[in-house]
Amino acid sequence: MLDHIAIQVHDIAASAAFYDAVLAPLGGERKKQFGENISFGVTGHPLWLVPATDAAPARELHIAFAAADRAAVDGFHAAALAVGAEVLHAPRLWPEYHESYYGSFVRDPDGNNVEAVCHRP
Fold first, then answer.
1. Which PROSITE patterns does its entry note (predicted)?
2. Which pTM value belongs to this model?
3. Thinking of the domain 5-51+63-118, which architecture would CATH place it in?
4. Which three-class secondary structure state does DSSP give residue 39?
């Protein structure tokens, strides 16, 4: 249903470096830069980082990225640790969601809850 989403960030360079690192294990990469705006994706431009329009703290957003397998979730987590992200939840099964839900949750530089999830056994 979604074609793309844009999130406002306070430091484009810091956020772009974060998403460069954590999306690489999932097959994601920078796709386009349009002025200060930067897009990421595997194909297309589903995620855009755009400069925040004011200094007020942003309201927390939850973004979950699909991982092909559990190793990709583990790679996402390792990349997040390497760039100093706050870990909300290390990779593990979340049977309360469903028996094969394997995910890791971290905070991006703007405090958003960013997840990598694999739904396969």
1. VOC
2. 0.93
3. Roll (3.10)
4. strand
The span from the CA of 36 to the CA of 60, in Å, is: 22
Structure tokens, 4: 């793309």
CA distance 102 to 13: 30
Burial tier of 26 (Cβ tally within 10 Å: 0-12, 13-18, 19+): buried
From the list 30, 38, 36, 42, the residue with the least C-alpha distance to 72 is 42
Q: Where are the domains of the chain?
A: 5-51+63-118
Which tens digit of pLDDT belongs to each residue from 2-44?
A: 889 999 999 999 999 999 999 999 999 999 999 999 999 999 9
Tell me the one-letter amino acid at 39: S
Give pLDDT, residue 56.
83
pLDDT (average), residues 73-79: 98
58 pLDDT higher than 90: no
CB 5 within 8 Å of CB 46: yes
The strand pair at 37-41 and 29-34 is best described as antiparallel
